[in-house]
Protein backbone atom coordinates (compact mmCIF):
# COMPACT_ATOMS: atom_id res chain seq x y z
CA UNK A 1 0.00 0.00 0.00
CA UNK A 2 2.76 2.42 0.94
CA UNK A 3 4.71 1.53 -2.22
CA UNK A 4 1.61 2.04 -4.44
CA UNK A 5 0.92 5.41 -2.80
CA UNK A 6 4.51 6.56 -3.38
CA UNK A 7 4.37 5.45 -7.02
CA UNK A 8 1.11 7.34 -7.50
CA UNK A 9 2.51 10.49 -5.92
CA UNK A 10 5.66 10.25 -8.04
CA UNK A 11 3.85 9.94 -11.37
CA UNK A 12 1.27 12.57 -10.40
CA UNK A 13 4.14 14.92 -9.63
CA UNK A 14 5.76 14.15 -12.98
CA UNK A 15 2.49 14.81 -14.82
CA UNK A 16 2.02 18.12 -13.03
CA UNK A 17 5.63 19.06 -13.75
CA UNK A 18 5.21 18.45 -17.50
CA UNK A 19 1.80 20.15 -17.71
CA UNK A 20 3.02 23.27 -16.01
CA UNK A 21 6.14 23.27 -18.18
CA UNK A 22 3.95 23.30 -21.29
CA UNK A 23 1.73 26.05 -19.89
CA UNK A 24 4.77 28.10 -19.02
CA UNK A 25 6.18 27.73 -22.53
CA UNK A 26 2.95 29.04 -24.05
CA UNK A 27 2.90 32.37 -22.30
CA UNK A 28 5.34 34.30 -20.17
CA UNK A 29 2.44 35.41 -17.99
CA UNK A 30 2.11 31.85 -16.73
CA UNK A 31 5.74 31.49 -15.66
CA UNK A 32 4.91 32.48 -12.11
CA UNK A 33 2.37 29.67 -11.81
CA UNK A 34 4.85 27.21 -13.31
CA UNK A 35 7.62 28.23 -10.93
CA UNK A 36 5.26 27.82 -7.99
CA UNK A 37 4.23 24.32 -9.03
CA UNK A 38 7.79 23.36 -9.86
CA UNK A 39 8.93 24.35 -6.40
CA UNK A 40 6.11 22.33 -4.83
CA UNK A 41 7.24 19.11 -6.52
CA UNK A 42 9.63 16.69 -4.79
CA UNK A 43 12.46 18.82 -6.20
CA UNK A 44 11.55 21.63 -3.82
CA UNK A 45 14.16 20.55 -1.27
CA UNK A 46 16.94 20.48 -3.88
CA UNK A 47 18.55 22.96 -6.24
CA UNK A 48 17.63 22.65 -9.90
CA UNK A 49 17.75 24.48 -13.22
CA UNK A 50 16.54 24.07 -16.78
CA UNK A 51 17.65 26.12 -19.78
CA UNK A 52 16.38 25.38 -23.31
CA UNK A 53 17.65 27.07 -26.48
CA UNK A 54 16.16 26.80 -29.99
CA UNK A 55 19.06 26.60 -32.47
CA UNK A 56 16.91 27.27 -35.56
CA UNK A 57 15.53 30.52 -34.16
CA UNK A 58 18.64 31.33 -32.10
CA UNK A 59 16.27 31.97 -29.23
CA UNK A 60 16.11 30.88 -25.61
CA UNK A 61 12.68 29.41 -24.97
CA UNK A 62 12.99 28.70 -21.26
CA UNK A 63 15.34 29.59 -18.42
CA UNK A 64 14.92 28.65 -14.78
CA UNK A 65 17.95 29.34 -12.54
CA UNK A 66 20.20 29.39 -15.60
CA UNK A 67 22.57 31.93 -14.05
CA UNK A 68 23.09 30.01 -10.81
CA UNK A 69 26.20 27.94 -10.13
CA UNK A 70 25.95 24.15 -9.95
CA UNK A 71 28.41 21.34 -9.31
CA UNK A 72 28.52 19.85 -12.83
CA UNK A 73 30.10 16.43 -12.12
CA UNK A 74 30.78 14.79 -15.49
CA UNK A 75 29.09 17.60 -17.42
CA UNK A 76 32.61 19.02 -17.10
CA UNK A 77 33.60 16.57 -19.84
CA UNK A 78 31.62 18.70 -22.31
CA UNK A 79 34.08 21.52 -21.63
CA UNK A 80 37.00 19.10 -21.89
CA UNK A 81 35.70 17.93 -25.27
CA UNK A 82 35.53 21.53 -26.48
CA UNK A 83 39.07 22.12 -25.22
CA UNK A 84 40.35 19.16 -27.21
CA UNK A 85 38.69 20.37 -30.40
CA UNK A 86 40.32 23.79 -30.01
CA UNK A 87 43.91 22.67 -29.40
CA UNK A 88 44.43 19.13 -30.66
CA UNK A 89 44.87 17.80 -34.21
CA UNK A 90 42.86 14.94 -35.71
CA UNK A 91 45.48 12.39 -34.64
CA UNK A 92 46.66 12.25 -31.03
CA UNK A 93 50.09 13.84 -30.47
CA UNK A 94 51.60 10.71 -28.91
CA UNK A 95 55.21 11.74 -28.30
CA UNK A 96 57.60 14.65 -28.68
CA UNK A 97 61.07 13.61 -29.80
CA UNK A 98 64.43 14.46 -31.29
CA UNK A 99 66.26 11.79 -33.30
CA UNK A 100 69.98 11.66 -34.00
CA UNK A 101 70.91 8.81 -36.35
CA UNK A 102 69.99 5.61 -34.44
CA UNK A 103 69.29 7.45 -31.16
CA UNK A 104 65.99 8.91 -30.01
CA UNK A 105 65.20 11.28 -27.16
CA UNK A 106 61.49 11.38 -26.31
CA UNK A 107 58.98 12.62 -23.73
CA UNK A 108 55.31 11.95 -23.11
CA UNK A 109 52.52 14.32 -24.07
CA UNK A 110 49.87 12.79 -21.81
CA UNK A 111 48.54 10.52 -24.60
CA UNK A 112 46.27 8.04 -22.76
CA UNK A 113 45.98 5.47 -25.56
CA UNK A 114 49.44 3.85 -25.34
CA UNK A 115 48.84 0.15 -24.48
CA UNK A 116 45.46 1.17 -23.00
CA UNK A 117 43.24 -1.87 -22.16
CA UNK A 118 40.55 -0.61 -24.59
CA UNK A 119 42.58 1.06 -27.37
CA UNK A 120 45.54 -1.34 -27.17
CA UNK A 121 47.56 1.12 -29.22
CA UNK A 122 51.24 0.35 -29.75
CA UNK A 123 51.93 2.78 -32.61
CA UNK A 124 54.39 4.85 -30.58
CA UNK A 125 56.07 1.70 -29.21
CA UNK A 126 56.77 0.46 -32.73
CA UNK A 127 58.14 3.88 -33.63
CA UNK A 128 60.56 3.93 -30.68
CA UNK A 129 61.65 0.34 -31.34
CA UNK A 130 63.26 1.41 -34.62
CA UNK A 131 66.04 3.14 -32.68
CA UNK A 132 68.95 1.31 -31.10
CA UNK A 133 69.49 3.82 -28.29
CA UNK A 134 66.53 5.25 -26.39
CA UNK A 135 66.55 8.16 -23.95
CA UNK A 136 63.44 9.18 -22.04
CA UNK A 137 62.90 12.63 -20.53
CA UNK A 138 60.32 12.18 -17.70
CA UNK A 139 60.52 15.65 -16.16
CA UNK A 140 58.03 17.58 -18.31
CA UNK A 141 54.92 17.63 -16.08
CA UNK A 142 53.79 19.83 -13.22
CA UNK A 143 50.79 17.63 -12.41
CA UNK A 144 49.97 15.98 -9.11
CA UNK A 145 48.75 12.40 -9.33
CA UNK A 146 45.17 13.50 -8.57
CA UNK A 147 43.12 16.58 -9.31
CA UNK A 148 42.16 19.11 -6.61
CA UNK A 149 39.21 18.05 -4.50
CA UNK A 150 39.19 14.40 -5.56
CA UNK A 151 38.03 11.89 -2.96
CA UNK A 152 41.05 10.15 -1.41
CA UNK A 153 39.20 6.86 -0.85
CA UNK A 154 38.75 6.37 -4.61
CA UNK A 155 42.42 5.48 -5.06
CA UNK A 156 41.62 1.80 -5.76
CA UNK A 157 38.63 2.35 -8.05
CA UNK A 158 38.74 1.85 -11.82
CA UNK A 159 37.45 5.39 -12.44
CA UNK A 160 40.30 7.13 -10.61
CA UNK A 161 43.68 6.27 -12.19
CA UNK A 162 46.55 8.62 -11.54
CA UNK A 163 47.46 11.29 -14.10
CA UNK A 164 50.86 11.14 -15.76
CA UNK A 165 52.90 12.50 -18.66
CA UNK A 166 53.48 9.04 -20.13
CA UNK A 167 50.57 6.82 -19.10
CA UNK A 168 50.92 3.14 -19.96
CA UNK A 169 48.13 0.54 -19.93
CA UNK A 170 45.71 3.30 -18.88
CA UNK A 171 47.62 3.42 -15.56
CA UNK A 172 45.59 0.42 -14.39
CA UNK A 173 46.32 -3.24 -13.67
CA UNK A 174 43.80 -5.59 -15.27
CA UNK A 175 43.13 -8.55 -12.95
CA UNK A 176 41.23 -11.78 -13.50
CA UNK A 177 41.09 -15.08 -11.65
CA UNK A 178 39.38 -17.44 -14.10
CA UNK A 179 40.66 -20.04 -14.80
CA UNK A 180 43.79 -18.79 -13.04
CA UNK A 181 45.12 -15.58 -11.58
CA UNK A 182 46.56 -13.24 -14.18
CA UNK A 183 47.57 -9.59 -14.21
CA UNK A 184 48.24 -7.24 -17.08
CA UNK A 185 50.83 -5.83 -17.31
CA UNK A 186 52.69 -8.91 -16.09
CA UNK A 187 55.10 -6.76 -14.09
CA UNK A 188 52.52 -6.74 -11.29
CA UNK A 189 51.75 -10.47 -11.29
CA UNK A 190 53.78 -11.15 -8.14
CA UNK A 191 52.11 -8.23 -6.34
CA UNK A 192 48.58 -9.67 -6.34
CA UNK A 193 46.99 -11.65 -3.52
CA UNK A 194 43.64 -13.41 -3.81
CA UNK A 195 41.98 -12.43 -0.56
CA UNK A 196 39.23 -10.28 0.86
CA UNK A 197 40.45 -6.82 1.83
CA UNK A 198 38.97 -3.40 2.54
CA UNK A 199 40.62 -1.93 -0.57
CA UNK A 200 41.82 -3.48 -3.81
CA UNK A 201 45.27 -1.92 -3.41
CA UNK A 202 47.45 -0.51 -0.69
CA UNK A 203 47.12 3.26 -0.83
CA UNK A 204 50.75 4.16 -1.52
CA UNK A 205 52.23 0.98 -2.96
CA UNK A 206 51.53 -1.53 -5.69
CA UNK A 207 50.20 -4.36 -3.56
CA UNK A 208 46.85 -5.57 -4.96
CA UNK A 209 44.04 -7.69 -3.53
CA UNK A 210 41.52 -9.63 -5.59
CA UNK A 211 38.44 -10.88 -3.80
CA UNK A 212 38.08 -14.62 -4.54
CA UNK A 213 34.32 -14.13 -5.06
CA UNK A 214 34.91 -11.84 -8.04
CA UNK A 215 34.84 -13.76 -11.32
CA UNK A 216 34.81 -10.78 -13.67
CA UNK A 217 37.83 -8.90 -14.97
CA UNK A 218 38.53 -5.79 -12.91
CA UNK A 219 40.80 -2.80 -13.32
CA UNK A 220 42.71 -1.31 -10.39
CA UNK A 221 44.87 1.84 -10.70
CA UNK A 222 48.56 1.35 -9.98
CA UNK A 223 50.88 3.83 -8.29
CA UNK A 224 52.84 5.54 -11.05
CA UNK A 225 56.45 6.65 -10.74
CA UNK A 226 59.51 6.95 -12.95
CA UNK A 227 60.94 3.54 -12.00
CA UNK A 228 57.67 1.70 -12.74
CA UNK A 229 57.28 3.44 -16.11
CA UNK A 230 60.90 2.69 -17.01
CA UNK A 231 60.44 -1.02 -16.24
CA UNK A 232 57.18 -1.18 -18.21
CA UNK A 233 58.81 0.49 -21.19
CA UNK A 234 61.80 -1.81 -21.02
CA UNK A 235 59.55 -4.88 -20.94
CA UNK A 236 57.45 -3.86 -23.92
CA UNK A 237 60.31 -2.43 -26.01
CA UNK A 238 62.69 -5.30 -25.27
CA UNK A 239 65.58 -2.90 -24.72
CA UNK A 240 67.03 -0.67 -22.04
CA UNK A 241 65.61 2.82 -21.51
CA UNK A 242 67.94 5.51 -20.17
CA UNK A 243 66.59 8.56 -18.33
CA UNK A 244 67.94 12.02 -19.19
CA UNK A 245 67.50 15.30 -17.33
CA UNK A 246 67.00 17.41 -20.42
CA UNK A 247 66.52 17.28 -24.17
CA UNK A 248 69.37 18.01 -26.57
CA UNK A 249 69.32 21.38 -28.31
CA UNK A 250 67.04 21.68 -31.32
CA UNK A 251 63.35 21.69 -32.27
CA UNK A 252 61.22 18.80 -31.10
CA UNK A 253 59.12 16.83 -33.54
CA UNK A 254 55.73 15.29 -32.76
CA UNK A 255 54.79 11.69 -33.49
CA UNK A 256 51.04 11.17 -33.97
CA UNK A 257 48.95 8.15 -33.01
CA UNK A 258 45.28 7.15 -33.15
CA UNK A 259 42.38 9.48 -34.10
CA UNK A 260 41.39 11.87 -31.33
CA UNK A 261 37.69 11.24 -32.03
CA UNK A 262 38.08 7.66 -30.79
CA UNK A 263 39.39 9.07 -27.49
CA UNK A 264 36.69 11.76 -27.30
CA UNK A 265 33.93 9.23 -27.96
CA UNK A 266 35.17 6.81 -25.32
CA UNK A 267 35.45 9.67 -22.81
CA UNK A 268 31.90 10.87 -23.49
CA UNK A 269 30.12 7.53 -23.86
CA UNK A 270 31.80 5.78 -20.92
CA UNK A 271 32.30 8.97 -18.89
CA UNK A 272 35.96 7.97 -18.64
CA UNK A 273 37.64 10.19 -16.06
CA UNK A 274 41.17 9.11 -16.96
CA UNK A 275 40.73 10.03 -20.63
CA UNK A 276 39.24 13.39 -19.67
CA UNK A 277 42.17 14.30 -17.45
CA UNK A 278 44.71 13.22 -20.03
CA UNK A 279 42.96 15.21 -22.79
CA UNK A 280 43.60 18.41 -20.83
CA UNK A 281 47.24 17.41 -20.40
CA UNK A 282 47.42 16.68 -24.13
CA UNK A 283 45.97 20.10 -24.86
CA UNK A 284 48.62 21.72 -22.67
CA UNK A 285 51.34 19.90 -24.65
CA UNK A 286 50.46 22.15 -27.61
CA UNK A 287 50.84 25.26 -25.45
CA UNK A 288 53.97 24.63 -23.39
CA UNK A 289 56.88 22.24 -22.88
CA UNK A 290 55.50 21.56 -19.39
CA UNK A 291 52.28 19.54 -19.16
CA UNK A 292 49.76 21.34 -16.97
CA UNK A 293 46.00 21.00 -16.64
CA UNK A 294 45.92 24.51 -15.21
CA UNK A 295 47.63 25.90 -18.32
CA UNK A 296 45.00 24.33 -20.59
CA UNK A 297 42.13 25.56 -18.40
CA UNK A 298 43.46 29.12 -18.06
CA UNK A 299 44.15 29.40 -21.78
CA UNK A 300 40.63 28.22 -22.60
CA UNK A 301 39.07 30.67 -20.15
CA UNK A 302 41.15 33.56 -21.45
CA UNK A 303 40.93 32.80 -25.14
CA UNK A 304 37.95 30.65 -26.12
CA UNK A 305 35.58 30.93 -23.14
CA UNK A 306 36.00 34.58 -22.17
CA UNK A 307 32.47 35.25 -23.48
CA UNK A 308 30.69 32.82 -21.15
CA UNK A 309 27.62 34.35 -19.47
CA UNK A 310 29.09 33.49 -16.06
CA UNK A 311 32.74 32.58 -15.62
CA UNK A 312 33.10 29.13 -14.02
CA UNK A 313 35.32 27.70 -11.36
CA UNK A 314 36.96 24.94 -13.37
CA UNK A 315 39.68 22.76 -11.83
CA UNK A 316 39.81 19.39 -13.64
CA UNK A 317 38.90 17.61 -16.86
CA UNK A 318 36.66 14.85 -15.56
CA UNK A 319 34.35 16.56 -13.08
CA UNK A 320 35.50 14.34 -10.21
CA UNK A 321 36.15 17.45 -8.12
CA UNK A 322 33.35 19.10 -6.22
CA UNK A 323 35.29 22.36 -6.55
CA UNK A 324 34.00 22.74 -10.13
CA UNK A 325 31.19 25.26 -10.57
CA UNK A 326 29.39 25.97 -13.85
CA UNK A 327 26.08 27.63 -14.64
CA UNK A 328 23.58 26.04 -17.03
CA UNK A 329 23.78 29.22 -19.11
CA UNK A 330 27.49 28.67 -19.62
CA UNK A 331 27.08 24.99 -20.53
CA UNK A 332 24.43 25.91 -23.10
CA UNK A 333 26.81 28.54 -24.48
CA UNK A 334 29.59 25.93 -24.86
CA UNK A 335 27.16 23.48 -26.46
CA UNK A 336 26.26 26.22 -28.98
CA UNK A 337 29.94 26.71 -29.78
CA UNK A 338 30.38 22.99 -30.36
CA UNK A 339 27.34 22.89 -32.66
CA UNK A 340 28.58 25.92 -34.61
CA UNK A 341 32.12 24.59 -35.05
CA UNK A 342 31.62 20.84 -35.57
CA UNK A 343 29.36 19.09 -38.06
CA UNK A 344 26.19 17.82 -36.44
CA UNK A 345 26.82 14.30 -37.73
CA UNK A 346 30.21 14.14 -36.04
CA UNK A 347 28.99 15.88 -32.88
CA UNK A 348 26.06 13.52 -32.35
CA UNK A 349 28.40 10.54 -32.68
CA UNK A 350 30.58 11.92 -29.89
CA UNK A 351 27.65 12.52 -27.50
CA UNK A 352 25.89 9.55 -25.90
CA UNK A 353 22.25 8.92 -26.84
CA UNK A 354 19.57 8.50 -24.18
CA UNK A 355 19.10 4.85 -25.09
CA UNK A 356 20.58 1.46 -24.29
CA UNK A 357 23.81 2.36 -26.13
CA UNK A 358 24.45 5.39 -23.97
CA UNK A 359 22.78 7.03 -20.99
CA UNK A 360 20.27 4.40 -19.82
CA UNK A 361 20.39 0.61 -19.56
CA UNK A 362 17.16 -0.02 -21.50
CA UNK A 363 14.96 1.94 -23.89
CA UNK A 364 11.35 1.54 -22.70
CA UNK A 365 9.54 3.90 -25.07
CA UNK A 366 8.10 2.03 -28.07
CA UNK A 367 7.03 4.37 -30.84
CA UNK A 368 9.84 6.82 -30.09
CA UNK A 369 13.25 6.82 -31.66
CA UNK A 370 15.97 8.08 -29.29
CA UNK A 371 16.01 11.87 -29.56
CA UNK A 372 18.41 13.02 -26.84
CA UNK A 373 22.17 13.34 -27.40
CA UNK A 374 23.58 14.47 -24.09
CA UNK A 375 26.21 14.00 -21.40
CA UNK A 376 25.08 13.06 -17.92
CA UNK A 377 26.98 14.02 -14.80
CA UNK A 378 26.38 12.41 -11.45
CA UNK A 379 27.70 11.61 -8.03
CA UNK A 380 26.01 11.40 -4.65
CA UNK A 381 22.95 13.68 -4.52
CA UNK A 382 23.72 15.25 -7.92
CA UNK A 383 22.42 14.45 -11.40
CA UNK A 384 22.81 16.69 -14.45
CA UNK A 385 22.12 16.23 -18.16
CA UNK A 386 23.23 18.69 -20.85
CA UNK A 387 23.27 18.35 -24.61
CA UNK A 388 21.03 18.30 -27.66
CA UNK A 389 17.40 17.34 -28.28
CA UNK A 390 15.77 16.61 -31.63
CA UNK A 391 12.07 17.49 -31.72
CA UNK A 392 9.38 15.53 -33.52
CA UNK A 393 9.48 18.07 -36.38
CA UNK A 394 13.26 17.77 -36.68
CA UNK A 395 14.32 20.96 -34.90
CA UNK A 396 17.45 20.85 -32.73
CA UNK A 397 17.35 22.33 -29.24
CA UNK A 398 20.18 22.73 -26.74
CA UNK A 399 19.41 22.16 -23.08
CA UNK A 400 21.00 21.95 -19.66
CA UNK A 401 18.98 20.35 -16.86
CA UNK A 402 20.99 20.44 -13.62
CA UNK A 403 20.00 19.06 -10.23
CA UNK A 404 22.10 19.34 -7.08
CA UNK A 405 21.61 18.39 -3.42
CA UNK A 406 18.54 16.16 -3.75
CA UNK A 407 17.77 13.35 -1.30
CA UNK A 408 15.36 11.34 -3.46
CA UNK A 409 16.68 8.36 -5.47
CA UNK A 410 18.47 9.55 -8.60
CA UNK A 411 16.22 7.45 -10.85
CA UNK A 412 13.33 9.76 -9.85
CA UNK A 413 15.36 12.73 -11.05
CA UNK A 414 16.10 10.97 -14.33
CA UNK A 415 12.39 10.25 -14.72
CA UNK A 416 11.63 13.98 -14.28
CA UNK A 417 14.27 14.90 -16.80
CA UNK A 418 13.09 12.46 -19.45
CA UNK A 419 9.40 13.34 -18.99
CA UNK A 420 10.21 17.03 -19.46
CA UNK A 421 12.44 16.54 -22.49
CA UNK A 422 9.95 14.14 -24.06
CA UNK A 423 7.23 16.80 -23.75
CA UNK A 424 9.45 19.31 -25.57
CA UNK A 425 10.20 16.70 -28.24
CA UNK A 426 6.48 16.09 -28.82
CA UNK A 427 5.40 19.74 -28.69
CA UNK A 428 7.91 21.08 -31.20
What does this 3D model show about the protein?
This protein has a 5-stranded antiparallel beta sheet with strand order 2-1-15-14-13, with helices on both faces. A 5-stranded mixed beta sheet has the order 11-5-4-3-12. The protein is about 35% helix and about 20% strand. The model is unreliable at about 1-35 (pLDDT under 50). The chain is built from 11 helices and 15 strands. Helix 1 (about 1-25) packs antiparallel against helix 2 (about 30-40), helix 3 packs parallel to helix 7 (about 275-285) and helix 6 runs antiparallel to helix 7 (about 275-285). About 40% of the residues are buried. Helix 4 links the parallel strand 4 (about 105-110) and strand 5 (about 135). With about 425 residues, it is an alpha+beta fold. It has 2 domains: about 40-70 and about 325-410 and about 420-425, DD-peptidase/beta-lactamase superfamily (Beta-lactamase, 3-Layer(aba) Sandwich); about 90-290, no CATH class.
Which SSEs are present, and which pair or pack?
Layout: H1 2-26, H2 31-40, E1 47-54, E2 59-64, H3 76-87, E3 91-100, E4 103-108, H4 123-129, E5 133-136, E6 172-176, E7 182-184, E8 192-194, E9 208-210, E10 218-221, H5 226-237, E11 242-243, E12 253-259, H6 260-270, H7 273-285, H8 293-304, H9 328-341, H10 344-350, E13 372-379, E14 382-390, E15 396-404, H11 410-427
Parallel strand pairs: 4-5, 5-11, 8-9
Antiparallel strand pairs: 1-2, 1-15, 3-4, 3-12, 6-7, 6-10, 13-14, 14-15
Amino acid sequence: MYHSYNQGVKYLAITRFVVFFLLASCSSSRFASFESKLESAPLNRSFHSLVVFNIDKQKEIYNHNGGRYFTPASNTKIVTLYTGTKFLPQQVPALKYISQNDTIYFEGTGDPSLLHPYFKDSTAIRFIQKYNTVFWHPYNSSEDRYGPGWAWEDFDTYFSPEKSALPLYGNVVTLFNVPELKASPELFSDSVQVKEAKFRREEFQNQFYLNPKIKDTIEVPFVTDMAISQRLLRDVLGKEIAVVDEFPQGPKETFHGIPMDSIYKRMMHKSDNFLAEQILMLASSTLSDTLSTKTAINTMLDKHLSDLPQQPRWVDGSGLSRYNLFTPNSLVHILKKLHNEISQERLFQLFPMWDATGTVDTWNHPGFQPFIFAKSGSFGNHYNLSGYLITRSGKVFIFSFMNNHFRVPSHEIRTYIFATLKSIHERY
